[in-house]
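Methods — Computational structure assignment.
A single polypeptide chain was analysed. Its primary sequence is given first, followed by the predicted tertiary structure written as structure tokens.
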Amino acid sequence: MRKGEPRQGRQSKARAGAARAAAGERRLPAPAEPAAARPALRPEGKRDAAAPPPPRSTAMRLAGEVERLERELEAARSRMAALAACADVDPLTDVLNRRGFERELKRSLAYVKRYGPSAALLYLDLDGFKSVNDRHGHAAGDAVLKAVAMVLNRHVRASDVVARLGGDEFAVLLWNIGEVDAGRKALAIEAAIARTTATHAGATLSVGASVGAALLLPLDQPADVLDRADRAMYARKAERNRSKAAG
């Protein structure tokens, strides 16, 4: 404190200095924050260049590979279809086996139920077949089965179905036929089989057949019509045996 200077003046100068210092602090700029990293902007209208197309030789090679794979896929599908068909066919006689026949019978019953056409099932059992096997062997029996299958195919229409159910039993599905005509067809098939012979190892072989017929009814299940046709076949076999005994 200076001597002789009024106390009040000295206080006023001190306050003025403090005010100037405070004002100077307010005017100082705030330190700049570091700018966030930003991706470099491409000039307007500039874009990434498209990938160059593959060489012509590469494209042709790829196209050829696609064609080869398509051919292999089609061949595989054809083989699968052939195998599926073989699964339903009896390899000895080349007619449907039981599996294929049961599928066709289900379809036929569904068609009869929906549209009402007439159809019949013939059930065949060969007479004397066991004797052929016992005397001449199974190869001779196979020759007889093939001959019987050929007879059945010759005596039905293209719309009908022939099947070997197993052993010496066959079945035929006949379309657009009534009960009377189905019975006549059964007798005609019996007569045709009786006239048929097969040859094996120099021996002439022949068998008979008993055929039962049953109509397909709208409410039938496959087992129903098979049972009726089977019972009709055994009734016919008994009748034929009685006729032979009486003759």
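Note: The beta strands are 119-127, 161-166, 169-175, 198-200, 203-205, 208-215.
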